[in-house]
Amino acid sequence: MPPRPLAKINKIDPAELKMLKKRIDIAMVLIILSAALLITRLWYLQIYRGDEYAKLSEMNRIRIQDIAAPRGNILDRTGQPIITNRPRFNVVWSREDAPNPDEVIKDLARILHEDISVLLDRIRAATENPRYMPTRLKEDIDWETLAAIENKHLSLPGVRIEVIPSRDYLYGDFASHLVGYLAEISPRELTEKRYASYQSGDQVGKQGVEKIFEKYLKGEKGRNYLEVDVHGFEQRQMQLQEPFPGNDLHLTLDIELQRVAEEAMDGRAGAVVVMDVNTGNLLAMCSSPPLHLQEFVGGISQTAWNRLLDDPLNPLLDKTIQGQYPPGSVFKIVTALAAISEGIITPDATYFCGGSLNFGNRRYGCWKKGGHGTVDFQRALIESCDVYFYSVGMRLGVDKIAKYATSLGLGKKTGIELEHEKGGIIPSMEWKQQRYKEKWQDGETLSVAIGQGYVLTTPLQLCRMTAAVVNGGTLYRPQLVQSITAPDGRTLKTFTPISEGKILGSAHSLALIKEALVGVVNSPGGTAKAVKLPDVLIGGKTGTAQVVRLAQVEGMSEKAIPYKYRDHAWFTSFAPAEKPEIAVTVLVEHGQHGGSAAGPIARAVYKRYFELKNGTPGDAVETPPSLTKDEKEE
Amino acid sequence: MLRFDRRLFLNIDWVLIGAVLVVAFIGLANLYSSTHLYTNVGTPLYLKELTYYLFSAAILLLIVSIDYRVLLTLNYPLYVAMILLLVFALVFGKTIGGAQRWINLGFFRLQPSEPAKLILVITLASYYYRKETGKGFTLLDLAVPALLTGLPFLLIAKQPDLGTGLLLGFVFISMTLFVKLRWTTLATLLCGGLSAIPIAWKFFLKPYQRQRVTTFLNPENDPLGTGYHIIQSKIAVGSGLIFGKGFMKGTQGQLDFLPERHTDFAFSVWAEEWGFMGSVVLVVCYFFMILWGLNIAISARDKFGVLLAFGVVSLIFWQAFINLAMVMGLLPVVGVPLPLISYGGSSLLTNLAGLGLLMNIRMRRYMGSS
């Protein structure tokens, strides 16, 4: 601060000082009087009426109970509830009401059939909490136990029953990865900004939409102010703030299609994604095997958790968005689109497949050992001829293929609402240089052209790609939530389709591909004939993703190959062919054949979809037809 | 200006420093008792308060080292800065408990309505000092200081923070009465003021504020709403008896029954745990500090010093009196913190800066005119 000139100030003149002093004296008197007033008041409160207040403070202690808010429901697109709440009863211990627990806990342990030491440990663990905060001794007790405790209520001071709403999964484990589960908030989460208003002991969404839409679903806690006496018995209610229920989440899922997909997967490892091709809305998202959500209610045990971690079928992985697999022949859609659009081939140009192609000093085999003979564009896709696509891919070069794959939304996250989505890999020359510091080998382009090698995709990406190819070329962002409504029915938020733009490729080339894909299911020699439905025209593409190099399992019969070395089976599809409405993508891990392992699952979904649409009731899911010898295709 | 005169050191006001230290110690101990049960994330509140103390003490040192007469040239820039801060808080402030009071400075959330109290005191003291009148002030002379007070008053009442707004009013009235008024002026003001009360009641107060006043007049009427605070606070104070329940042993204060037990209702925790004896000690400490401040006012070397010291004293006195009377159920619940005791950095900074001005005036009472 620059030194400022001090204002010229004269000493105070005596006459004025005298006058001011008089006023200050008056002020002093007033101040002393107010001090006297306050002290008199203190005397009145603390001494004259002190005993009264002391008694009141003994008697009249306020207990504050938080009342959990019922969490919002989760419904499907038809308004069918999928997840609601049910009351859960916990036994809690309130320290402020009974300072020495030993006697009471002994009785309680008998009623709960619990070890005393377990209960005492829980009480000890909570000594850091404020005294009025109850400690949970046992969660989710049954009616019998509840009745027993209520009966002995008077001889169990300090023991209370707490009722909290907890999740009720009406459809069991359907869409379990997507909905996620609830658990007690962790100490680490408590320090995060987004959970600023939470307290320890609160339930919070840990995964899936339960986590993503937590702030809409959670509602607001109520509070109950109760007067309690010295023994902790409630005297009267002073004040009640009703809890405010959370908002309802309307998913885009159709619970019927979800059911069909889950049942058709039948616990095999894999994924099913069903998308509305004209909006990007997801009608079913199944990652199999499912999580058992009930295990997570009230916290999952360490043993159960370890079991999940060690399971070879990897149930903890959401395979729809986190499972990254080579797309195999499904990727030929990309290669075909690039080749036609770039003018590398004409639809009529043919190639000869003799069962293999020699390139450099290596021999690249076709899956059909005897070869396909002469194939044109349509045939190549219908019969999934590798040699045709080797040749086309070679002429395209890897970067052109990558350009089209990227425009179809592969190799990057789709932007779905869920956390921890994986983006997959679409290789290019630059990518390899960055990743491996090596030059791209021409031979590697051949593998990419048929969806092997470095290429990795997720089921969701392939489903979205299929939708974009058949809906006229628009790439939509996949969405899971239709709208959010308040408890009083008001709509708070609606989600409209989000277009990510147009894909590369002319309308003409898209039409050609679509036509070929219909052939895959419907023409002789097509790899997915098993999917055919009598009155709906379906189009699709099968794929097999190699898990190990053929050489290692060469000559083994399919049954003899150990499970973990078997190929993954893909099938991606759409229907009805004339004016596509939905796309269905199925992956069966180690299912060996797209047509036979994955195809029937898609077929079951279509069957149900059109039954629902046309109002023809059907029920049980068909079991996939067993394979006849001559249907063994790729 | 910054030339250090040996005499300054000789005149350090040890009495006031001692009184402040005693009250500060009481405040911190009480804060520890009322908040140690909080399962709060981050630094415990009493440690935060301690850092506010250290920060404010540094500001106090700075204030003491500069001659207070500088304020005569700085008063309007300070005033303008205060108005800007208040407007900023209204427009961009952080909303806490429905009121926009805070400006986030990163390390510190400033509540501009707190320093505004002190800046108003400085502004009024400068104005009345310059406006020498032999015969006393007329109504017209009062228009300017009334406007100077009215502007921050409206900005603060709009937040809404009626407690602080009223406090500005009390400070204005005290300082205006202190300088000479004409009898006619005084009479007119009294009549005008009294007739304004029903109008303010009807148009200016928000429903919840009216409710607070009616509840205060009859707390039993509404034991669950606003009356709850008053009843509970009285129970806490009353149940302290002669010697109190002991440090950290209060049941009322510890039981989370008062949402403001470490801020506005800090004294009820103290009274419950230390009883009549402890409460009287604290009240006496306070009032000793206030009376000492008046003593400083009367010994100041010039009229500006007298006015400034008197203003600071009236500010501290009104905060203390309103808060204590509220906690004891003598006044309706208005949000006025207890100086040096209630938790809160902005309030602490303001009051310590005010005490710094007092020490400043005291130290320079023998200096010649410059």
Biggest protein-protein interface? A-B, 59 and 69 residues
State which percent range the strand residues of chain B make up.
Answer: under 5%
Oligomer: heterodimer
- The rough form of chain B would be described as globular
- Dominant shape of chain A: elongated
Report the sheet with the most strands of chain B, covering strand number, pairing sense and barrel closure. 3 strands, antiparallel
Number of distinct helices of chain B: 14
Overall pLDDT score of chain B: 82
Q: Catalogue the unreliable spans of chain A.
A: 620-634
| Terminal CA distance of chain A | 84 Å
Summarize the helix and strand pattern of chain B as letters.
Answer: HHHHEEEHHHHHHHHHH
Task: Tally the beta strands of chain B.
Answer: 3
The chain-level mean pLDDT of chain A equals 85
Helix % of chain A is 25-40%
Keywords:
heterodimer; A: 634 residues; alpha+beta; seven-stranded mixed β-sheet; five-stranded antiparallel β-sheet; disordered C terminus; B: 370 residues; mainly alpha; three-stranded antiparallel β-sheet; 3% strand; cell inner membrane (chain A); penicillin binding (chain A); PCN-bd_Tpept (chain A); protease (chain A)
In short:
Chain A has 634 residues and is an alpha+beta fold.
Detailed description of the structure:
The complex is a heterodimer of chains A (634) and B (370). In chain A, α13 packs across α16 (398-407). In chain A, 35% of the residues lie in helices and 20% in strands. Chain A contains 22 helices and 23 strands. Chain A is an alpha+beta fold. In chain A, strands 2, 3, 4, 5, 10, 18 and 19 form a 7-stranded mixed sheet that branches. Chain A has a 5-stranded antiparallel sheet with strand order 12-11-23-22-21, with helices on both faces. By secondary structure, chain B is mainly alpha-helical. Chain B is 67% helix and 3% strand. Chain B has 14 helices and 3 strands. In chain B, strands 1-2-3 form a 3-stranded antiparallel sheet, with helices on one face. In chain B, a hairpin with a 4-residue loop joins β2 (99-104) and β3. In chain B, α5 runs antiparallel to α13 (303-327) and α13 packs antiparallel against α14 (345-363). The longest helix of chain B is centred in the last third of the chain and has 34 residues, at 266-299. Chain B is globular, with a radius of gyration of 21 Å. The interface between A and B is large, with 59 and 69 residues.
